[in-house]
Amino acid sequence: MKKIWSLFLLLSLFFILGGCIQNNKRNSAPSVKISQKKINRQDSQKIIITIKNKKLTAHLNNSSAAKTFSKGLPKTLSFRDYPGLPEKIADLGYKLPTDGMPKGHAGTRGSIGYWSPQRRIVFYWGTEDYYEGIHIIGHFDTNEYRSIIKNMGNNVNVRITRAE
């Protein structure tokens, strides 16, 4: 009986300690992500996006595609709806490198993306499913972008410049 009781206590202790370790891992993960985001924001390129005289600020990340896109600024692109999807698209006209980037991504609300199969810049005012070929190159800084992007209409010239 003592052996069974000892085994029960040992297994209970094992499960309790295992749960504590898992909790610590879960609790520490968000703080790592938050601090990483701050570091990336400081090292990234701030841009100004002008739509019908309204200026929105955003940041391009440090990806190969974003760095190449930034070198081509200032630039004016004509954005239009992508029917049925929560995004506006503009033909870029040239390929951006995607070296070191994931093969695909979900188009998350507030992201600026590069759709590599058709060489387009994409503003996501809503969330799109994961697709190979979506490469996130930046993000809008404020929430006011959503209504401006969503309601800007079709064939609207958008000026994108680097903030100095």
Automatic annotation (TrEMBL):
PROSITE patterns per UniProt: PROKAR_LIPOPROTEIN
Residue span, Cyclophilin-like domain: 49-160
InterPro entries recorded: Cyclophilin-like (IPR041183), Cyclophilin-like_dom_sf (IPR029000)
Superkingdom: Bacteria
Protein name: Cyclophilin-like fold protein
Native source species: Companilactobacillus baiquanensis
